[in-house]
Structure to design on (1018 residues):
């Protein structure tokens, strides 16, 4: 027997093995356990299929007020017979002696029993004995019950009971529910004396514990970083606070462009970078703006510090400073937009951007890298659509089919840096760039509809996702 | 991105060829248009801000004709010279809004849908090229309600006329203060005493640019002939706008006539096409696409440009309204679009470089692994935090020393965090209904006060009944030892220092400075009851916050 039994369970089994079919109250007496302990023990045994509980309801019969009167003084018809045993009596006399409703019942039942006859005279109706009155079954039943309460099933004369039930307040029926416990077949043979000290209930439920873990969004970031590395890209870092020069001007965004306004970009209060770039870089970028956009470029605007709106400012600065002939690099991190928070927009999110410079740098190569990237993420149904980015030309966006939504969703963007961006910075070879927001991919992965969930830090979610 | 609403039956009619609705919808994305929603025959598409010609169904139909091959090559707008129409420019405008240009569009039919499309175009041009009307703005008028010549001049703010959508006269001042457009765009005029105005021969006001037209020239479905005027502080921007409007009106069935402009630095707009000589080799170099010159020419024509072979080069003719085209790289993109992006095969070339994670990333990964191993779950908080976060950690003054951003749309994102710890304490306060012990950590960028330099921090907190200083110190010691092979010591802090955050966040006598190689890198300790009270936390919390950048260096 593999089962481990609690002391309570053992005591109940012992008792039931001696006497089967006990009520919980009996068990409480015989085992000297509290009624609560017994109830608990019975429940455990029942779940283990060692005991069964038989529920039954029984009706107990006792006498009502009239019944008790009849038990003590006889039924009304018997009282009547006593009154007339010495000779006929008038109705008036009897009515006076047998008060109330007893009179009608007495006359009616005595007549029904054939005990009396009624003669009409000038003095009114007179009643006299017709036949000897023997004890009726109802009277026998009343004597049997007496002041006790007896189970209905023990009453043999059902007809007498039926008659008495028809008479008011003679019989009280009490329904009593009762439970009895008995052992199942296999429990009959359990030897509760066998020792199982130290054993525990190995099948019982236990509390949940949670493994510590990295953040799900971080996991996605790491996964994407690994894929970039696998594709031959090396990681570079840059500051979150950037001069407008690298965030905008170097990327050919004119100084009056709407994206540069306070309502789209976070400008840092009272902070500017006196020398955002080398004098040559500043001069060339200024020239590119003045010539192509035909306006008066101002260094003051370029000195203003912003929270970077993309990671492109990091990669372009790296290319401008290092001027590699051939490289695959990427930058990953937080970027900022002055947005109202909603289920699809955050003010701060993660972006990755990779650039390729050197040979094999055609748009088709870039598309190939993208296709491989998505394949590594397990996304195989993809296509490319044309789009517009201010600093790349041509520009494409990847569309990925989302099975759950049943539609194409936009993921990463890509393109080739415009010559208006690269030339002034002394970058002579074409630069392919691609990237996008990471939360969007993580949302697909974790089936989230609300991007804010990643930053709610709800421990329940973090522990169980 | 701006949005335009299309009716697919209308588009079908405008394309005027044998083409199915399905084919039209399939091709929209390949014009660079994102389908935002579709409801029966009504489709809302997003278009790129560099293509304002796509702000109407007329412009989109023009593009689709090319892509579907029903009509290819440049869509020519011939400007008829009639000599009847003229705007004279008074030199007084030179200081406030010096340029005006325009065109006359005649013999068209306007229905409600056309008016809707034209208004959408006008709004988009105002927002984009017009820089919210500051740089340039358009007015469309019923030509037959005006008398020529017109004069572009200035007037005082007491000047009165009946503005659009009104029946009573208002002064300029009233319009600027009482109407929505006045309130939204009045700033573009600064506080100059006089404002620009266009009046006709009878001295009727027809426009108060860039704010509002006069009611008298309102364009309705009864209008047959339209006058277009564009005023601007930048002559090129004005002509850019005009070129889009005149092309769209021409597609809509109007004949275009010249509007003479005289005076100041102004001149009559020509709206001439440009020529770009394209080097065909670029196609293979940039796209990786090996196609013949004639195939390139076909592709360009499908994008509604003209192209002919000129020796070894391709001579491209760019209509005036395609001012998004700067040079050869833009031509490459047009070839890709005309060829069909869906026909470009992705090609996977092997990398000639080995990829590598940065040193910082590798170190952070090691730290993460160690901290998780010690039973801590990672959380992520924003770099931008609120003033309240400083207040709740008893550091209101430090908030004022930290960097703030201007005009944030969210009160929760106004200041750059200087520590990781406050965010973690807040996380604990939002999880009081979850089971304990709670152990969380975060790595991330903070902006040190008062130097304002960015640095990488690690913070961790632990909340449960028996948590205490010694356990947290032991954990930090283990992180540094296992993750970074570094030893640390703790030192009794200066409890009276006001500039150090330690005294404000931690309990007196229950926190310490953390030193690595004799440099203070942070604090470890028990969070004091004031801070816990502020966050309504009833469980003891211990934590640390250390500057990893100092350690990495």
């Amino acid at each position: 027997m593999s089962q481990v039994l609690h002391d309570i369970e053992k005591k109940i089994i012992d008792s039931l093995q001696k006497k089967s079919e006990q009520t919980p109250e009996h068990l409480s007496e015989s085992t000297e356990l509290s009624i609560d302990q017994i109830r608990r023990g019975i429940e455990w045994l029942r779940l283990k299929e060692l005991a069964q509980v038989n529920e039954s309801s029984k009706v107990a019969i006792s006498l009502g007020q009239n019944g008790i009167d009849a038990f003590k003084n006889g039924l009304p018809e018997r009282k009547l017979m006593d009154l007339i045993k010495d000779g006929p009596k008038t109705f008036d006399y009897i009515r006076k002696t047998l008060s109330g409703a007893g009179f009608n019942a007495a006359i009616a039942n005595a007549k029904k029993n054939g005990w009396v006859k009624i003669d009409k005279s000038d003095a009114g109706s007179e009643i006299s004995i017709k036949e000897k009155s023997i004890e009726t079954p109802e009277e026998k039943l009343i004597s049997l019950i007496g002041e006790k309460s007896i189970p209905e099933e023990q009453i043999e004369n059902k007809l007498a009971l039926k008659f008495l039930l028809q008479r008011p307040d003679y019989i009280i029926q009490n329904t009593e529910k009762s439970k009895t416990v008995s052992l199942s077949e296999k429990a009959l043979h359990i030897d509760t004396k066998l020792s199982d000290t130290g054993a525990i209930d190995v099948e019982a439920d236990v509390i949940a514990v949670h493994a510590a873990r990295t953040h799900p969004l971080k996991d996605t970031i790491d996964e994407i970083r690994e894929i970039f590395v696998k594709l031959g890209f090396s990681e570079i870092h840059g500051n979150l606070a950037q001069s407008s020069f690298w965030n905008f001007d170097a990327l050919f965004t004119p100084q009056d462009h709407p994206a540069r306004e306070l309502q789209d970009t976070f400008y840092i209060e009272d902070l500017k970078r006196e020398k955002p770039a080398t004098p040559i870089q500043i001069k060339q970028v200024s020239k590119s703006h003045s010539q192509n956009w035909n306006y008066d470029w101002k260094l003051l605007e370029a000195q203003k510090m912003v929270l970077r709106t993309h990671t492109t400012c990091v990669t372009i600065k790296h290319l401008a400073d290092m001027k590699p002939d051939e490289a695959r690099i990427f930058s990953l991190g937080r970027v900022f937009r002055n947005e109202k928070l909603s289920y699809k927009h955050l003010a701060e999110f993660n972006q990755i951007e990779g650039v390729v410079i050197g040979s094999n740098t055609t748009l088709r190569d870039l598309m190939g890298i993208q296709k491989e990237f998505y394949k590594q993420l397990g996304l195989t149904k993809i296509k490319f659509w044309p789009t517009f980015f201010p600093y790349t030309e041509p520009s494409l966006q990847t569309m990925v089919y989302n099975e759950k939504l049943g539609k194409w969703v936009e993921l990463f963007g890509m393109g080739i840096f415009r010559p208006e961006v690269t030339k002034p910075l002394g970058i002579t070879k074409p630069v392919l760039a691609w990237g996008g927001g990471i939360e969007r991919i993580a949302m697909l992965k974790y089936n989230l509809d609300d991007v804010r969930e990643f930053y709610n830090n709800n421990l329940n979610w973090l522990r169980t996702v | 991105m701006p949005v335009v609403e299309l009716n697919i039956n209308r588009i079908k009619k405008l394309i005027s060829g044998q083409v199915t609705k399905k084919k039209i919808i399939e091709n929209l994305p390949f014009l660079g248009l994102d389908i935002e929603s579709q409801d029966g025959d009504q489709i809302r598409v997003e278009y790129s801000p560099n293509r304002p010609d796509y702000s109407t169904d007329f412009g989109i139909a023009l593009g689709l004709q090319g892509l579907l091959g029903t009509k290819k090559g440049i869509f020519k707008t011939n400007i008829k010279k009639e000599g009847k129409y003229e705007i004279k420019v008074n030199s007084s405008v030179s200081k406030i809004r010096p340029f005006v240009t325009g065109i006359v569009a005649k013999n068209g039919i306007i229905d409600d849908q056309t008016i809707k499309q034209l208004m959408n175009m006008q709004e988009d041009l105002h927002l984009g090229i017009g820089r919210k009307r500051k740089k340039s703005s358009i007015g469309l008028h019923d030509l037959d309600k005006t008398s020529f010549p017109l004069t572009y001049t200035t007037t005082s703010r007491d000047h009165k006329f009946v503005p659009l959508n009104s029946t009573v006269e208002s002064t300029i001042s009233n319009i600027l203060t009482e109407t929505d457009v006045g309130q939204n765009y009045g700033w573009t005029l600064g506080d100059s005493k006089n404002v620009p105005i266009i009046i006709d021969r009878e001295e009727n006001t027809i426009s108060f640019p860039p704010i509002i037209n006069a009611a008298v020239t309102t364009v309705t479905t009864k209008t047959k002939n339209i006058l277009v005027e564009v005023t601007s502080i930048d002559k090129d921007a004005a002509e850019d706008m005009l070129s889009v409007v005149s092309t769209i009106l021409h597609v809509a069935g109007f004949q275009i006539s010249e509007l003479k402009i005289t005076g100041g630095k102004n001149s009559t707009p020509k709206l001439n096409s440009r020529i770009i000589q394209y080097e065909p080799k670029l196609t293979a170099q940039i796209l990786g696409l090996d196609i013949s010159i004639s195939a390139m020419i076909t592709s360009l024509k499908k994008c509604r440009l003209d192209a002919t072979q000129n020796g070894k080069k391709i001579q491209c003719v760019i209509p005036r309204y395609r001012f998004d085209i700067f040079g050869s790289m833009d031509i490459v993109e047009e070839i890709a679009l005309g060829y069909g992006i869906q026909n470009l095969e992705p090609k996977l070339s092997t990398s000639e470089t080995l990829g590598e994670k940065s040193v910082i990333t590798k170190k952070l990964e090691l730290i993460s692994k160690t901290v998780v191993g010690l039973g801590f779950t990672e959380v992520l908080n924003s770099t931008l935090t609120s003033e309240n976060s400083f207040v709740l950690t008893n550091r209101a003054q430090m908030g004022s020393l930290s960097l703030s951003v201007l005009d944030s749309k969210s009160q929760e994102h106004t200041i750059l965090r200087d520590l990781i710890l406050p965010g973690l304490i807040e996380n604990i306060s939002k999880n009081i209904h979850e089971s304990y012990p709670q152990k969380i950590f975060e790595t991330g960028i903070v902006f040190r006060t008062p130097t304002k330099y960015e640095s990488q921090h690690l913070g961790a907190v632990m909340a449960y009944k028996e948590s205490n200083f010694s356990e947290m110190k032991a954990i930090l010691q283990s992180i540094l030892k296992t993750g970074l092979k570094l030893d640390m010591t703790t030192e009794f802090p200066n409890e009276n220092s006001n500039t150090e955050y330690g005294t404000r966040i931690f309990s007196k006598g229950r926190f310490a400075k953390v030193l690595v190689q004799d440099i203070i890198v942070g604090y470890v300790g028990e969070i004091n009851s004031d801070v816990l009270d502020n966050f309504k936390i009833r469980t003891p919390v211990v934590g640390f916050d250390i500057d990893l950048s100092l350690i990495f260096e």
